[in-house]
Give the backbone structure.
Amino acid sequence: MLFEVTGLYALPLALLYLALWLRVSATRARLKISIGDGGNTSLLENIRKHGNFVEWVSVVLILMVIAEGNGAAPLWLHVSGALLVAGRIVHPFGLTATDPAHPLRIVGNSASLLAALVATGCLLVNSLGL
């Protein structure tokens, strides 16, 4: 089975993942910190941006793959994927230690939550026939 819709969103998400990983690695190299954040706020922020990305994207992509495999309507998969990509693009710009209520952080996490809810809804409809 091909996962054409989910694959369409997995590609830009993989590129974002690599960009966030590269920022962590570059910051670690520059600061000569191998493990942890060494008390450096910039490194901690980069680690959390990457970690938050991994936490959301892995779950939502798994939900989308299962939903697509179970015959979910492509429109709803596109809604979920677009929300996820948009949310993950804006979130790192708002995740700062100095402003926990930054609008881009809220928008990014809200979009990711909606993406998860849409994918979960697809699963409920297609897997359980609700």
User: Anything to note?
Assistant: The longest helix spans residues 41-69. The mean pLDDT is 95. Residues 52 and 92 are 9 Å apart (CA to CA).
